[in-house]
Write a structure and sequence with these properties.
Layout: H1 3-18, H2 21-32, H3 36-51, H4 60-68, E1 78-80, E2 83-92, E3 95-102, E4 107-113, H5 116-119, H6 122-136, E5 155-157
Antiparallel strand pairs: 1-2, 1-5, 2-3, 3-4
Length: 158
C-alpha cells in the first residue's frame, strides 16, 4: 500500500466517522465510487472501531492521559527498593524514567517504571521484559547499562 493510498483511506475513515450510521452506506458509495478495495478498507476500519468502542477515533495522547489519571502515585521523594528517586527524566509510551541514587554504590542511575495499567497487561509486561533483556545484552559506551530489573513492590518514603 502506498502512502498516498493510506492517506486516502485514513481521510475517508475519519470522514465516515462524522456521518451518522444510517447515512454511511450512501456516503461510502459516493466517496469510493467503483473502488471496491478502497471501500472494503474503510469499512474494515469502521467495523474495528465499532468493536473497540471508538478507541481508533481517540487521539493517542487523550487515551494515555485517561489511563494515567488512574495511576497518580508519584515516585518523587520515595524509595524504590534501595534507590532514592530524585527527579523525573521523562515519560513515553512504555513508562516513566526517573533519576535515582543508589546509596549502596553511591551512583546515579536511571529507573524505568511501567504505569500500573500497563504492568497489569501480560503482553506489555512481556514487551518490557524483552526490552530489558535486549539492553542487558548490549555493551557500548553510548548505551545504558542495565544493573537490575524487578517489580515495584517496595515503595517507601525517605
Amino acid at each position: 500500500m502506498t502512502p498516498d493510498r493510506w492517506e486516502l483511506i485514513n481521510k475517508l475513515y475519519h470522514a465516515a466517522l462524522e456521518v451518522e450510521d444510517k447515512g454511511r452506506t450512501s456516503f461510502l458509495e459516493e466517496a469510493c465510487k467503483e473502488d471496491a478495495e478502497l471501500r472494503s478498507e474503510v469499512e474494515s476500519l469502521l467495523k474495528m472501531n465499532a468493536q473497540v468502542g471508538g478507541f481508533l477515533g481517540t487521539p493517542a495522547m487523550e487515551e494515555v492521559a485517561r489511563e494515567l489519571k488512574d495511576d497518580p502515585v508519584s515516585l518523587l521523594g520515595r524509595r524504590l527498593g534501595p534507590y532514592q528517586i530524585l527527579r523525573v527524566l521523562g515519560a513515553g509510551g512504555m513508562g516513566e524514567v526517573y533519576e535515582a541514587r543508589d546509596p549502596r554504590l553511591n551512583r546515579i542511575v536511571a529507573i524505568k517504571v511501567l504505569p500500573k495499567h500497563f504492568s497489569e497487561r501480560a503482553g506489555l509486561r512481556q514487551r518490557f521484559e524483552r526490552e530489558a533483556r535486549a539492553i542487558a545484552s548490549l555493551n557500548h559506551p553510548h548505551i545504558c547499562t542495565l544493573y537490575a530489573k524487578g517489580r515495584k513492590t517496595e515503595l517507601t518514603s525517605w
